[in-house]
Design a protein that fits this description.
single chain; two-stranded antiparallel sheet
Length: 161
């Protein structure tokens, strides 16, 4: 039998082993045959990934919306190009129908594109400082979040209506 492929965790932008070095086999439920090995992540791996993601989020949040939008659109294109590979791997390890997975996974790039486009939406605001006869205008990026809008420049929420 040939060596099983090792599908690593993706942490900090790169394939990563479990900190413990442990792995386990994934079996095809239809045949019982092993199809791959994966890292056996534990609490230390989760804590590490959260710490790294928290640091990355600080950098991400300071990037202009247009750059973040370009990154998300690139991710959508990469995902769309790899859907058939994801379907093949997922079917072999879960036994789910190919048609069902193809339909579900095909929607992933759409979500990345949707959020990419929302980063390019701006809202014009008007305010009249107290005691001033002049109105001030400015624009801010907004992102839809569960029926409200997140002011991406200020990190504050306001109702979308």
């Amino acid at each position: 039998m040939s060596e099983l492929p090792l599908h690593k965790m993706f942490v900090d932008g790169k394939p990563t082993d479990a900190l413990s070095g442990k792995t386990f086999e994934i079996e095809n439920p239809a045949t019982g045959e092993p199809v791959a090995r994966v890292p056996e992540g534990d609490k230390a791996d989760i804590d590490n990934a959260i710490d790294i993601a928290t640091s990355a989020f600080e950098v991400w949040g300071k990037m202009p919306g247009e750059i973040r939008s370009n990154i998300l659109n690139k991710a959508a294109a990469i995902l769309a190009a790899q859907i058939n590979n994801f379907v093949r791997v997922e079917v072999s390890q879960t036994g789910r129908p190919i048609r069902e997975l193809t339909s579900q996974l095909a929607r992933l790039p759409e979500w990345f594109s949707y959020y990419a486009s929302s980063l390019r939406v701006t809202l014009k605001r008007y305010t009249k400082p107290r005691g001033s006869p002049l109105w001030t205008t400015w624009t801010t990026s907004v992102v839809p979040i569960e029926g409200s809008m997140l002011d991406a420049d200020k990190g504050s929420m306001f109702n979308a209506d």
